[in-house]
From TrEMBL:
Taxonomy of the source species: Eukaryota, Sar, Alveolata, Ciliophora, Intramacronucleata
Biased composition annotated in UniProt, kind: Basic residues: 1-19
One Gene Ontology term, aspect cellular component: nucleus
Domain Protein kinase residues, every copy: 55-369
Protein name as annotated: Protein kinase domain-containing protein
GO MF, any single term: ATP binding
UniProt key word Kinase: yes
PANTHER family named in the record: SERINE/THREONINE-PROTEIN KINASE DOA-RELATED (PTHR45646), SERINE_THREONINE-PROTEIN KINASE DOA (PTHR45646:SF11)
Biased segments, Low complexity type: 25-38
UniProt source species: Paramecium sonneborni
Length: 371
């Protein structure tokens, strides 16, 4: 199936450019029986107990920028999650539906959220999904950002690399990998001595939110990903990004599972972000990237006056003292990751130069996964 046949995104971390999202991470048994959104008037007006096609509305789960999620039940069947998309985002929603049906046809719904069907109801585009449990982000938050056990990091990372590697083999890039888009089935509560920890009852994960997925032969937007998981080549706009940008995002998630905190703790400051990239990875941007930077960052790269192989000079009027101190005190990857095998794998996945960054399959062959 070609890209032409398949195609007709809680801002906890902000995108530069909004995209359509069909996040089902909040589809649990918790929710409200009615609407609670501040811009409720923009969403589909539902009544508890009404039927949308053959689905009976049980309760309201959540509202997002792009639509409203309801818990529904088909007669004599199980419960589902129904996303009712706001009318001005219907085209984008159909694009994701096309990709999810494509993956389902290839029997890949074991790895990616399963779409049951899609249809129009009173002018609104509706997508019916299987119901899934909490997200990896929820797990980290429930454990008070202390990180999770190494065996679970290894299990989740292996699945992530395998599933996204399958997308890459299909010439697709996910473009928005983050803990919010990695879901479990259920989470159980465990107590070990005096330490309380939440762990998933089933370690199997599913990937959601393919609203921004892009085929190799399609147009590539200038900026993708949530900033903290955005690869440097994307931020610098120095080349056409590809699947290696997903690998960078997965590495950021792996560090977050280990430490419990974002690897790149920066929000809107792109200058600080790129400085943190150099500091954490202990690498300098290569000449070819520095020489092809576009956008506002271009003025802070100098390929003529090189100092110890360094081309990025972000301190020239682009940073506050607070920002400078933040970068100065930032730990490196070597200081953060004590496990030698995990650290070696992450260093290979966090190569600044995408041409040197390993692929998902190469990462799966690393000794970290044979331990």
């Amino acid at each position: 199936m070609s890209s032409k046949e398949s195609r007709k995104r809680s801002n906890r971390r902000s995108h530069k450019k909004p995209k359509y999202s069909t996040s089902t991470s909040s589809i649990t048994d918790e929710g409200s029986n009615g609407s609670s959104s501040s811009d409720d008037y923009k969403h589909y007006k539902f009544r508890k107990g009404e039927y949308i096609k053959e689905y009976k509305v049980r309760r309201h789960i959540s509202d997002g920028t792009f639509g409203r999620v309801l818990k529904v039940r088909r007669k004599n069947s199980k419960s589902y999650a129904m996303k009712i998309v706001r009318s001005n985002h219907a085209d984008s929603a159909q694009q994701e539906a096309d990709i999810l049906f494509y993956l389902k046809k290839k029997e890949l719904n074991r790895y990616f959220v399963e779409i049951i069907e899609s249809f129009y109801h009173r002018g609104y585009y509706c997508m019916v999904f299987e119901r899934l449990g909490p997200s990896l982000y929820d797990l980290l938050r429930m454990n008070q950002n202390r990180g999770i056990p190494m065996n679970l990091i290894r299990c989740i990372s292996r699945q992530l690399l395998k599933y996204i590697g399958i997308l890459h083999n299909l010439k697709l890039t996910h473009t928005d990998l983050k803990p919010e888009n990695i879901l479990f089935s259920r989470i159980r509560y465990l107590q070990k001595g005096q330490n309380e920890m939440y762990l998933p009852q089933d370690h199997r994960i599913k990937i959601i939110d393919l609203g921004g997925a892009v085929f190799d032969d399609e147009d590539h937007n200038c900026i993708i990903n949530t900033r903290q998981y955005r690869a440097p080549e994307v931020q610098l706009q120095c080349c056409k990004w590809d699947q290696k940008s997903d690998v960078w995002g997965i590495a950021c998630i792996m560090v977050e599972m280990y430490t419990g905190h974002l690897l790149f703790q920066t929000r809107k400051n792109e200058f600080e972000h790129m400085a943190l990239v150099e500091k954490i990875t202990e690498q300098n941007f290569p000449y070819w990237m520095a020489n092809n930077v576009k956008g506002s960052l271009k003025h802070f790269f100098n390929t003529k006056n090189v100092t110890n192989g360094k081309y990025y000079f972000w301190l020239q009027g682009s940073s506050s003292k607070e920002s400078q101190l933040k970068v100065k005190n930032q730990q490196t990857l070597k200081e953060m990751i004590l496990d030698p095998l995990l650290r070696d794998l992450l260093q290979k996945m966090l190569e600044i130069d995408p041409n040197k960054r390993i692929s998902c399959q190469e990462a799966l062959n690393h000794k970290f996964f044979s331990n």
